[in-house]
Amino acid sequence: MPADPMRYDVIVAGGGPVGLACAISLGRDGRRVCVVERSPVDVLADPPFDGREIALTHHASEWLKAIGAWEEIPSGSICPMYTARIETGKTGSPPLLFDAPSDGPDALGHMVANHLIRRALYRVAARTPGVDIRAGESIASSWHDARSAGVVLANGERIEADLLVAADGRFSRLRAEAGIGAIVHDFQRNIMVCRMRHPESHANTALQWFDEGQTIALLPVAPDERPGSCSSLVLTLEPDEIARLKALDGKAFSEDITARTQGRMGQMTLESARCVYPLKAVYAHRFHAPRLALIGDAAVGMHPITAHGFNLGLKGQETLARAIADGPGDAGDPSVLARFERTHRLATAPLFAATNAIATVYTRDEPPFLMARRAGLAVANRLLPFKAAVTNMLMDRHG
Length: 399
What we know:
399 residues; alpha+beta; 11 helices
């Protein structure tokens, strides 16, 4: 006879940052949670550099501090961002600037490497009572219906719960198997991310530059050894051009990036591995099914232009945990999932639509779009209420 299945309140499929954050939130609320993650435990405990730098809002930073994750991140690797600078076309055009408010706090947000956030969240999750992390395990099959939810692992083990949470990325297998479709906006571009060293200080400024034929972001990072002289490059180009750049040796690549950035920060030198990702935004048609909830990129996979992907993912798991805590006691109760869906959709749908619209307009190089971009930045720079509203959105001090 097969052994009785393990029983939990919630199973989280995916041990990325949002999946781990969800497990921590639910564990702190007294729930029994099982996280199933394909990566082995040594990768979860010390994730490799993946090129991605996260612009944490104040709300996200405060949440990380509240659970004890902030102190697990080396302080020298946390870079405050004082200014966001947006440019379009060739250098010399007036930029649109967003500065931290004079009445405080002194930063718009903080830049932290994604792999350091993952490591910090794993350390907290691993010591949170009620949270079991099944690393190095894959899900062979899953089910969720009106009565129960669960998974069967590749080794044949069966795990049951009141709720199954899909935190398995923007190309979520669990979402597809549940028959939940998604809006997929394929921008027909790839993104390359890496760190570049340069002699000029980044002055804690995040640059988003919509140049003709390419989009470049230079995000301030603060390595321990030489703060102020290293930035994260986020380069958006057609896939063939990204592949060509990745194949260059370090010296040739550095020369190319120096030319692309028009030497604005001096001679660029490659400092890290070059990581490439397809540029696709995803928005699920529904965020839940019977005893199934979608969080993170499985629900909303944002274009990185607004740097809000992780922040929205963090809010999504908070929303789910709050709906469960306020519910009748059953984590998979239909009323709980309906409340989660309603709240998270209101928080994400407008930003998703606006982000995609901006990304489309600001990456088209036909003359009318170039003129509209320049005029738009010039007008926006004079609209102080608009700038204040965007600044508040970037900072998200009140969640």
